[in-house]
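Hey L., structure's done. Input below.
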Amino acid sequence: MYENPSVFSSKDLPAPRRAAQFIMPRIDFRDPASVKRAERLVRDFCVCGFIIFNGDVERVRETTHRLAALSELPLFFGCDVERGLGQRVSGGTLFPFAMAQGAMDDEELLRCQAMITAREMRYCGLNLAFAPVLDVNSEPQNPIINARAFSDDPAVVSKLGGIFAETMQKEGVLACAKHFPGHGATLEDSHACLPTVERSLERLKESDLLPFREAIAKRLHCVMPAHVCFPALDPLGVPATLSESILRGLLRGRLGFNGLVVSDSFRMDALGGEEREEENILAALASGVDIVLDPRDPEGFLERRAEDDFFQDPARGESLSRISYSKGLFASGEEEAPAPDFNKNREEAGEIARRSACVVRGERLRDEKVSVFHFGKEDTDELLAGLYEGFSEGAVTVEKSFRCPEQPPGGDVSSLVLVLSVAPAGWTENCIIPPATADYVNALSSFPGEKILLTFGSPYPAAEFPFFDTVISLFDSSRAAGRAAAEILTGERRSTGRLPVRTGQ
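Output:
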């Protein structure tokens, strides 16, 4: 892809526009002023593009088209779409976490998901996908990668991540693989703090680096570095985002990557907060990042620093060449994409939710009556509705539904079904079971009847509760996932998924 793109000279762009090509701010449709701010950034500075948060399909589409028409240069419009457009844009299709694809290991369904995601993005005017995740989730207590990874097996991650990226780009969307050199071994969330991975170079080569190395060999176009420290790769103790040793020495030098490097969000607390943002932007660009993503104050930075000699450095010219070349391929403003069939696409997402269900241990229900115990989280409404539908159609009666802190029944009830929905999300530690909750669940071990655990999202918490007779893991909290769990328990559906990670169960 990047054989010999011409290198920009200092005369190719006026200084403010030259500096602005390294900056990619956000548009958050929850903020009423966000779109107007974006228009000013395009008109006054001609920024590189935008990362999109929230909004609905038609509003996003109208906004991207308007901004593209306003800009002197092509714009990147990026979005976190590991789980499809619906992860960030309402009305788009939301798929299960990537671990569902690892559980199925079905190339056709993976290509289908990537194709749907790319086509929905293009309809909205989006051309840069912050996906796939190439992290190898080797740490079961990882609070932020977890089910976002395809597997804890580097070979599986390599294969599935490569298929996803290849398919997206065939559909005209630039895929950005993340988080180099690997976020899967961390015990901390880089949204909230700066993690460190204390692994030897050999261990990193065997595991974390393998998917990136193989993807680069297959001409991966774009990489996002991690806000994570790797002492074995950079003894200075700076995160990969700011490390010349990691970005220029390892990524570009030893691995031969000559594509685009886009940072992770600069609003994440791993980088030290607002007071260090300006120096971090300059350090990232000096270390090998081409585009800085999601700074807090893009206007202020450009007003203060756009005329600096820093942006006339030949290394910035090389970055501009990569940016320009990538935009020529993926942000050229070609004809409008046709409207997707969103209803059909949601059916495909439901099929993936059903097909990826994994019976970890146990079998179908022993009785035709159950009590369902759950924690009343907002994201469980749909899955509970699907669960009850599946039980009803399978001739199983839900006698009672209990919500924490209620106590489940004793006596003659033969089966207790516990619904546990936990999933990775920034700044939340949602994947970690709080001690009080763990104590509450462990108290169910004395329940006299059959005990069934259904996990939705992350499969790892099931390992903490070995007393359940039956454990079924699914990888999202959709209605389809809830129904699939019930159908497996009633014998109406056969589970074909296999957990793609080791959980200690």
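The radius of gyration is 24 Å. The chain is about 35% helix and 15% strand.

-- N.
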